[in-house]
Amino acid sequence: MIVDVHYHYMPSMSEEGAARLVKYVMHQAEILGIHAERDALVRKILETWGDPTGEQLIRSMDEGGIDVTVAVTVDHFSRMTAETAQRQNKMLNNVVKRYPGRVIDLAGLDPRRPEAVAMARYYLEDLGMKGLKYHPDHGYHPAGPESYRVLEVLARNKGLLLTHTSPLGPPARNAFSEAALLSDLAVDFPEITIIAAHMNAINWRPWAALAGMQPTLYGDLAMWDNLAFRNYDLFCRELRTIIDLVGAHKVLFGSDAPIHTLLQPINKWGGIIRDLPAKAPAGISFTREEVDLILGGNAMRILNLGKEENML
Ligand SMILES: [Zn+2]
Fold first, then answer.
1. Residue 199 has pLDDT above 80, yes or no
2. What spacing in Å lies between the alpha carbon of 5 and ligand 1's midpoint?
3. What average pLDDT does range 3-24 have in this prediction?
4. For residue 72, how many other CB atoms are within 10 A of its CB?
5. Whether pLDDT at 131 is above 90
6. Residues 150, 116: contact at Cβ < 8 Å?
């Protein structure tokens, strides 16, 4: 069973959105040493990322051998209206209903919205969405008062919070996406399962220090494909150290598709994890059990997948 816990669902794609997102993909191409033409990438983004019915998502899952995907939307208080944010979450929820058992939905919600509490209740209680996606890098504290009133709703519904950690380029407000800022959440909202997206990236130790002590905090491997493709040995060393320090049960497979899979298909990334026991460099070893936990076992456990009453 392979579960991707980090997929960006986008019901539609505007020229403006494509122009913004292509900058990230061009940066990724540069990191990976891949020659990429900006205009060709923009065309591909416009053609393939807007996915009103979820067909693209299911096709990419089938092609990549992904059994279940946790799909999120991104809400940005100053960039989109509450109506737009709500519409994209409703469309994601429709995808879940169209493909039962394949997709789990986390609603993008910017807690700075004045109507954020009502929106959280609508997503979690009326639509039955499974949790929320935060982007504190947009400029809010994940444990600030605005967030806390939203997390109270999430805690009541025993939901999942996937929250961005790790620095990004401008305009990201990186001070807010430090994993250490999640520290109080496990204390004040023990009912919420938290996945720190990207595990704080290069600076993963503050995340690991917390995750090792807090039973509700996990991390995902989205964005780590950049390191794995560029410097496989270093990736193996880092992942091995993380597992040695906090355990393989804390790490979940994530792709950041379709953004991260525009240049490299998802099965290449999944294959790197799957093949770790056979291909890790001399002196570093991974067990099949560890890899199975990362690729799907942990997500199954955390999301209660496979249990009759929770099947979507
Ligand atoms: Zn992401």
1. yes
2. 10
3. 95
4. 26
5. yes
6. yes
Where does residue 24 rank: exposed (0-12), middle (13-18), buried (19+ CB within 10 A)? middle
Q: Are 155 and 191 in contact (CB under 8 A)?
A: yes
For ligand 1, the distance from its centroid to the CA atom of residue 182, given in whole angstroms, is 17
Could you tell me the distance, in angstroms and rounded to a whole number, from the CA of residue 309 to the centre of ligand 1? 29
Distance (Å) of CA 215 to CA 58, 92, 140, 180, 205? 32, 29, 24, 15, 17
Q: How far is the CA of 200 from the centre of ligand 1 (A)?
A: 12
How many whole angstroms from 7 Cα to the centroid of ligand 1? 7
The number of folded domains in the chain is 1
Comparing CA positions, the residue from 92, 79, 200 lying closest to residue 142 is 200
| Predicted confidence (pLDDT) per residue in 107-121, tens digit | 999 999 999 999 999
pTM of structure: 0.96
Query: Shortest CA distance to 253 belongs to which of 226, 227, 274?
Result: 274
Cβ distance 102 to 69 under 8 Å? yes
**CATH number of the domain that 165 lies in?**
3.20.20.140
Residues 6+ apart with CB under 8 A from 36: 25, 26, 29, 263
Range of the domain at 25: 3-310
Eight-class DSSP state of 80: S
Would you say residue 308 has pLDDT above 70? Answer: no
Helix or strand run (H / E) with residue 150: helix 145-156
Determine the pLDDT at residue 309.
47
**pLDDT of 311 over the 90 cut:** no
